[in-house]
Write a sequence for this structure.
């Protein structure tokens, strides 16, 4: 884990500022960013498949959100898998997103920001898209 980067990330709130900070600390990363390396660099300790029909992805963290585990729906491949993992990294890194997350296919496509949940899903989607 890059302690200096994690300190800098603590000052970021918007998905775009988080992305910019990560890329400043990893100028060698070019699109598409190596998603597993990114996860490890921010203290995601594991990325696991989960057997589910209900959720596309999930995030489980310790109480202080210092480390986490990302879950993605078994059988998910390619770009969908990358987006799901990045979406959950977004939940992990965006300071206002608290607690464990379980995200549906609808959450991964959310564009409305009328409720707190919708706003958080839109932010995680913005992070993943970046």
């Amino acid at each position: 884990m890059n302690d200096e980067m994690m300190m800098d990330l603590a000052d970021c709130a918007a998905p775009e500022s988080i992305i910019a900070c990560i890329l400043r600390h990893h100028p060698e990363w070019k699109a598409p960013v190596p998603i597993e390396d990114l996860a490890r660099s921010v203290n995601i300790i594991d990325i696991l498949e989960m057997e589910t029909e209900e959720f596309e992805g999930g995030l489980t963290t310790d109480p202080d959100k210092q480390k986490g585990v990302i879950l993605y729906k078994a059988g998910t491949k390619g770009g969908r898998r990358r987006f799901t993992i990045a979406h959950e990294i977004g939940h992990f890194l965006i300071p206002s997103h608290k607690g464990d997350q379980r995200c549906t296919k609808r959450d991964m496509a959310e564009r409305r920001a009328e409720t707190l949940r919708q706003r958080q899903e839109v932010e995680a989607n913005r992070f993943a898209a970046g």
User: Anything to note?
Assistant: The CA atoms of residues 90 and 124 lie 5 Å apart. The longest strand covers residues 44-50.
